Amino acid sequence: MSDIPVLISDLAIILFSAGLITILFKWLKQPVVLGYIMAGIIAGPYTFGGPMIMDAENIHIWADIGVIFLLFALGLDFSFKKLMNIGGTAMISALTIVGAMMMLGYITGLSLGWSHMDSLFLGGMLSMSSTTIIFKAFDDMGLRNQRFAGVVFGILVVEDLFAVVLMVLLSTLAVSKHFEGMEMVDSILKLIAFLVFWSITGIFLIPTFLKKTKQWLNGETLLVVSLGLCLGMVLLAVKAGFSSALGAFVMGSILAETIEAENIEHLIKPVKDLFGAIFFVSVGMMIDPAMLVEYWFPILLITIVVMAGQITFAASGVLLSGQSLRIAIQSGFSLAQIGEFAFIIASLGTTLHVTDKFLYPIVVTVSVITTFFTPYMIRLANPAYQFVTKHLPTHWIHFLDRYSTGTNTIRHKSTWLQLLKVLCRIVITYTILSVFTIALFLQYLTPLIRKELPGLQGSLVSAIAILLLISPFLRAIMMKKNHSEEFQQLWSDSKYNRGPLISLIVLRVALCIGIVMFVISSLVNVAVSLLLVIATTVILFFIYSKRLKKYSIQLERRFLRNFTARQHEQERKAPIKQRFVKHLLDRDLHLADFEVSQSSPSVGKTLKELNFRQTCGVSVVTIIRGEERINIPGGEERLYPFDHIIVAATDQEINVFREFVENRVEKRKHELEQQRPPEVSLEQFTIEANTPLVGRTIRESGIRDKAACLVIGIERNGTSIMNPAPDTTFETGDVVWIVGEKDKLLHLAAGETI
């Protein structure tokens, strides 16, 4: 009980200081993350001669929870479906950035005289841009609908995955304290197996669970279930020897495939914001201002390396992927910072005691500086593009244009390549599922079965159970794509294709026979020849079993249904089909969504009157009004408050339209503020004998129609008439209660004729 007051007082200091400083940073139009770090510096042990926080261990625990929820939220925005759809641009660009920046960071650390471990961690920290900061900057600057923003978001998605993998690899390297190729390969294979197994298992089970329990899932229960699933996967990741952050990220990416993803993201945001704030405050608490003065040169050098390196390598990677020079430069300038993953990797090095103390505050300071400059760097992109095109040789520009056009040209893919690519994915995925299932069963369930059924009987039961569990996976390895369009085309095209095609089937069957032999030999001592016969018999049963075929197809359909449920729901609700959006992008046109403000002067006017096409060059494609969607609206269609209008235009035209709308709304708000309409008030007055209201009904008096006032009550002879009917007659001595504008009420009270 004695710890409770300290816990509360420390939390109060953290949140109070964070709240005040972030309000100041909001006023200065700076990211709140910087405010949290500044609050941590103020509350830390180095600023005022002593720590304001009494128990720093509590802060570290909350900070660890903050990392979990930050990674969980990133996973919710990640989605493996999104990773599959982003295309080669994001993958090539992210690989270029991460690889080059890691190498550049490592070389920079060594050039400063730092150790190999410090330099390696520095390279990891500098290789990731800040998803949070870039999202916020694009939102504030109205750039989210521009083409380069889509490229940047795709790169960030891939970088998020690389960052999680990098954390695991750095942890492994830090624990072993030296680099061994096979050990690192082993760690990578274990990581891939963990990601594949739990991602597929989660997508198979969790969407179905949420769908079955949907009627009982309100906001409260959905939040609790989501957090429970997140922390459950955290426990599994830690049990498997990985970090808690990896488990949170994996569960977030699984839930991102469900139709409840948006609801979960909305519900988890306050929790993430709270613990995220504590995490960033704890980051600030570890910064010693005196150390920053001492290490001013490394800070300056690393800042220059980050900004110049990210701009150069990001632009190069985007160019290499086939995008235009303008898109490449805009993307490079947008990615010129490091963010939350740098903090997490720095915390990892500190926690594992493998990096020096000076590295953490240096990297945080570099992150703060580069974050501060992010909006300015984004604005500099267009001037930089103009400068480059002005000074770059003309033949270089023509070469880049031809390269961009040639790369984006649709090429015919080899049928063999398509078939082999799909088969590799199928074999690897189902093999991992089979191996993980076998390993989990042998480790946890086989001992229980043998305890109840000792001897050969328990071993046989375990073997049969394992083979039944993995039978759908083995059948998929052997039989999938054997009747596909690609397979049939290759079989029909040439007789020389038939040998390799049969060999592919034989190899897959042999792999499955080997897996079955491994299962049986792990549990039962059988001669090799007999083992081969048994395994072959089992495999033939799997191939020809109609029941297993039906069950395997059902499992696959259920997985695909869960995997694509969110996408189908989004397509159902989307005003414009994604295929149409891609056609627009090919023509350098984009779709942008604008909400009609309540105070907009466009409210009540027709599209013909507004004439957006002539004024700004944009075309209104769709109007969304609640659940109603008006596609290709006519000129007589009117706009109403809270309507969403979807317009198609180029980047420049969308910017012109945004400024046009914002200026009109601001002008209208200013006009309304200047008008200051009279307030409505409630007054009472008594009807005297000589007033013209005596003997007239409420309707005849004109109080409603001419004076714009409303009679809401009459007191007569000790009784009250509430909301009197229009044909009620006024009598001498009536006390009348009227609502209206004050000046008009005064005229009525004075007995003036209406």
TrEMBL record:
Its main location: membrane. It is a multi-pass membrane protein. Residues 579-663, 670-754 form the RCK C-terminal domain. This is Sodium:proton antiporter. Keywords: Ion transport, Membrane, Potassium, Potassium transport, Transmembrane, Transmembrane helix, Transport. GO terms for biological process: potassium ion transport; proton transmembrane transport. One of its GO terms (cellular component) is membrane. GO terms for molecular function: antiporter activity; monoatomic cation transmembrane transporter activity. It is found in: Membrane. InterPro entries: Cation/H_exchanger_TM, Na+/solute_symporter_sf, RCK_C, RCK_C_sf. The keyword Membrane applies. Belongs to the monovalent cation:proton antiporter 2 (CPA2) transporter (TC 2.A.37) family. The chain crosses the membrane at residues 6-25, 32-53, 59-80, 92-114, 120-138, 150-175, 187-210, 222-242, 295-320, 332-352, 358-378, 422-444, 456-478, 499-520, 526-544. It comes from Butyricimonas faecalis.
